[in-house]
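Extended Data, panel c. Modelled sequence:
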Amino acid sequence: MTEKAILVLEDGSVYQGYAFGAAVSTYGEVVFNTSMTGYQEMLTDPSYAGQIVVPTYPLIGNYGINKEDFESKKIQVRGFVVREECLEPNHYLGEKTIDEFLKEYRTPGICGVGDDLRANFLILFICKAATLACSRLDKDLVAVFDNLLYACRRHGHTIFVIFDLLGYTDYHEGFSFFMR
């Protein structure tokens, strides 16, 4: 748990933590889950497809991953943001760690992101500032993501870019990416 990772929100806020799971970059809509158990169900729940899930419960992974608690055949989320990852789960049904599970399905995670993210969760839903490095939306969006992710990887960062996809469908003004 020594590789650093960053979480970038659409208002330009940057949260630093440590990478776990797959060493890939991702983007998606951030959502919170307030349950105290069920992280395996969260990860495999089809209703979270394409989203980055942030459980509000601080310790995730303490009972491991088992064959019984899948909601679908694979991980559905695009990313997982936790305060603390349990490195040594302890449960008689547990077969692997959450880190191993995320790696198996090429899903990135970031841990060590503290209460400041959770305390500011309302900001996530009202932010309309943009986070992409381009001057016009009519450019190829995939190329924009590729360039942003390449730049982050070149500097040794794993990055989550979070934004409202639906909000950009009819938007034709320019926007820019910035870090504080």
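The chain has one domain: 4-164. This feature is highlighted in the accompanying rendering.
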